[in-house]
Design goal:
Helix content is about 55%, strand content about 5%. The chain is an alpha+beta fold. The N terminus and C terminus are likely disordered.
Length: about 475
């Protein structure tokens, strides 16, 4: 909850320096030193704030204090670790690059600045007027982000740019906007304080050190889900509850992803693999983590207990559908429905199944984006694969398929993934929803595949051998990856 202390005019001992007055700005601070490298990062409560000044008034000083709850940055608890020595490594720093000691505080300081933008964004998304005429530097960025949100339904939406404009808060800002856009806040009588707290905690629980499975990926999937919800067949059939569940599932579908896949967790005797009996390990963890935050923030506490539990179960069903190892199961069922033309969106179970397929498409839609965006995602997911492969080599474990940088290239991984996973799914989705968006996605997919093919070196073997190798790789696709 935000508490503002505003001093209309506070005389300063001396004028604000001219170089400071040349621009608007703010200084953020925290009363806790845990974000600056203190030995106890488990502290849950902190006091953060900011001092803002405006060049139009050289003697005006505005002070804002914010009480926030900060998620533990410790990662996995020692008593939960398995027997393998690798599990002593904090997953939250798994994909961090080698940096100088001085660069770490700078990165943490940047996180502090983001909380002002969180608050400002939530205000303009609710349409609330400013409490005072103060203009701070963040408004310039929020103005550009607001312009982007006006085109959030465009398939060319650049989530990377949007994340920069929101200072790394793309998931919170985008989701707040969409919840307001669909009128879900008022319809379900959601408490905006609880909604904002829930989304901030969700964003914090994504490991942004992961090159791919981070909060930007979650925001990208949420934006894609919004595009699918707007498709004519779904727009006229889905209920408000369906839409809320679809958005929440997209937001939380990879929550607390460790940046490694299921085979890695199994081979290192990780406690999650034992907990979920080596079955949909990551997806079960994402779902349970989401339920934990829903209950912690009491987002649905005002609803009847039965309705709240039902929403949690349906949320789990959607998230579990993103298990890439069950791709053929869902695709076969979808194809059968389309062949028999028996999908009835007036039926709640059929609507839910279509939502599952929509989330699956949103989760792996990167190859269907314009090349400039698709290429960035391809590089990020392959970087995450190869980093896992390097860890496996270091600990003398069998290297997972597609994770060996010595035998695979980005082009190899992407061509196999597009051919055997993405194309079959989106071809069936186009049968179900034959719209301009579906044709656009298939067009981008074809062009992107041709671009990766052009980057491949001349194959030494026959084309049949190359195709056979790619098919074998796709069948051994790691769970929770490319883009799961």
């Amino acid at each position: 909850m935000e508490v503002c202390y505003q001093l209309p005019v506070l005389p300063l001992d001396r004028p604000v320096p001219k170089h400071v007055l040349s621009r608007r700005g703010a200084i953020s601070f925290s009363s806790s030193s845990s974000l600056f490298g203190a030995p106890d990062p488990r502290q849950l409560a902190q006091r953060r704030g900011a001092i803002s000044y405006d060049s139009s008034d050289q003697t005006a000083l505005y002070i804002r204090m914010l009480d926030v709850r900060v998620r533990s940055q410790v990662g996995f608890e020692p008593e939960r670790r398995g027997s393998h020595p690798y599990l002593g490594v904090d997953f939250r720093t798994l994909h961090s690059r080698a940096e100088s000691a001085g660069s770490i505080p700078a990165r943490r300081i940047r996180r502090l600045f983001s909380f002002q933008r969180h608050l400002l964004s939530s205000r303009f998304l609710r349409g609330a007027p400013h409490l005072n005429p103060l203009h701070i530097l963040d408004e310039d960025y929020c103005g550009q982000a607001k312009c982007m949100l006006e085109k959030v339904g465009s398939w060319n939406f650049d989530i990377f740019l949007f994340d920069r404009l929101t200072n790394g808060n793309s998931l919170v800002t985008l989701t707040l906007y969409l919840l307001s856009h669909y009128g879900l806040i008022e319809l379900f009588q959601l408490d905006m304080v609880k909604v904002h707290r829930f989304l901030v905690l969700v964003q914090e629980d994504y490991h942004n050190h992961n090159p791919y499975h981070n909060s930007v990926h979650a925001a990208d999937v949420t934006q894609a889900m919004h595009c699918y919800l707007k498709e004519p067949k779904l727009a006229k059939s889905l209920t408000s509850c369906d839409i809320l569940l679809g958005l929440l599932a997209a937001v939380t579908h990879d929550l607390d992803h460790p940046g490694v896949n299921q085979p890695f967790l199994i081979k290192t005797n990780h406690y999650l693999a034992a907990l979920y009996r080596n079955t949909s390990v990551l997806e079960n963890h994402h779902w349970r983590s989401a339920v934990g935050l829903l209950r912690e923030t009491e987002l649905f506490s005002h609803l009847p207990a039965e309705d709240s539990l039902n929403m949690e179960r349906q949320l789990g069903s959607l998230i579990l559908a993103t298990d890439i190892s069950r791709q053929n199961e869902y695709l076969s069922k979808f194809r059968t429905h389309l062949d028999q033309e028996d999908l009835c969106l007036g039926n709640a179970s059929h609507r839910h199944f279509v939502l599952q397929m929509a989330l699956k498409c949103a989760d792996i839609c990167n190859p269907c984006r314009p090349w400039e965006l698709s290429k960035q995602w391809s590089e990020k997911v392959t970087e995450e694969f190869f980093h896992q492969g390097d860890i496996e080599k270091k600990h003398k474990l069998e290297v997972s398929p597609l994770c060996d940088s010595e035998t695979n290239s980005i082009a190899d991984v992407q061509i196999g993934f597009m051919t055997y996973v993405v194309e079959p799914l989106f071809a069936e989705w186009a049968r179900f929803s034959d719209t301009r968006l579906s044709q656009t996605m298939l067009g981008h997919l074809c062009l992107n595949k041709a671009s990766w093919n052009a980057m491949q070196p001349e194959a030494s073997g026959s084309s049949e051998e190359l195709e056979s190798e790619q098919e074998a790789s796709s069948r051994a696709l790691p769970q929770g990856s490319p883009q799961s």
